[in-house]
């Protein structure tokens, strides 16, 4: 019996797909030339130590015209963080330097570029509402989503 039996193959498949599989501690997000993200919500598994967001600009426009970043804060802080980010300017990736309300952020990227950011999941509290957005001027009202700690 050199060939794996069907039953053994099924068991192996069940083991690989079962609850022993580690939680997914990263997410891929795309921004477009149409000023859109391809996601609106993110659930961060509480079992992750770190969570990584990989941002990709799927468009062609340069960052000065249609730049995108990914900025995470408490939902209650998002508007003020976005406003202060605009004042900080493109060379600061539209994030106020040292802004303690910012939990994590990528840099501003243009078409074809990528950036990633990782943060400690311990910074997130269960039951708190978090918001993420692109802080490029004028984008945060459309390019935004929610994030919460999942059980
Ligand atoms: Cu943007």
TrEMBL record:
Blue (type 1) copper domain segment(s): 24-149
GO cellular component: periplasmic space
Gene3D superfamilies in alphabetical order: Cupredoxins - blue copper proteins
Protein origin, superkingdom: Bacteria
Localisation: Periplasm
A UniProt-annotated Pfam family: Copper-bind
CDD domains for the chain: Azurin
Keywords on record: Copper, Disulfide bond, Electron transport, Metal-binding, Periplasm, Signal, Transport
Coiled coil: none
Molecular function terms from GO: copper ion binding; electron transfer activity
Signal peptide, first to last residue: 1-22
SUPFAM superfamilies: Cupredoxins (SSF49503)
Chief place of localization: periplasm
Free-text function comment from the UniProt entry: Transfers electrons from cytochrome c551 to cytochrome oxidase.
Protein name: Azurin
Species of the source: Aquabacterium soli
């Amino acid at each position: 019996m050199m060939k794996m039996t069907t039953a053994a193959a099924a068991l192996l498949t069940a083991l690989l797909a079962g609850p022993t599989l580690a939680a997914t501690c990263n997410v891929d997000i795309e921004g477009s030339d149409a000023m859109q993200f391809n996601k609106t919500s993110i659930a961060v598994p509480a079992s992750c130590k770190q969570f990584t967001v990989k941002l990709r600009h799927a468009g062609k426009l340069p960052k000065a015209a249609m730049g995108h970043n990914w900025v995470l804060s408490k939902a209650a802080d998002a508007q003020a963080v976005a406003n202060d980010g605009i004042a900080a300017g493109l060379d600061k990736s539209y994030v106020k330097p040292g802004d303690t309300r910012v939990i994590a952020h990528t840099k501003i990227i243009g078409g074809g570029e990528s950036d990633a950011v990782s943060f400690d999941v311990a910074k997130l509290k269960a039951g708190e509402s978090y918001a993420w957005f692109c802080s490029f001027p004028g984008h945060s009202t459309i390019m935004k989503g929610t994030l919460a700690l999942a059980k």
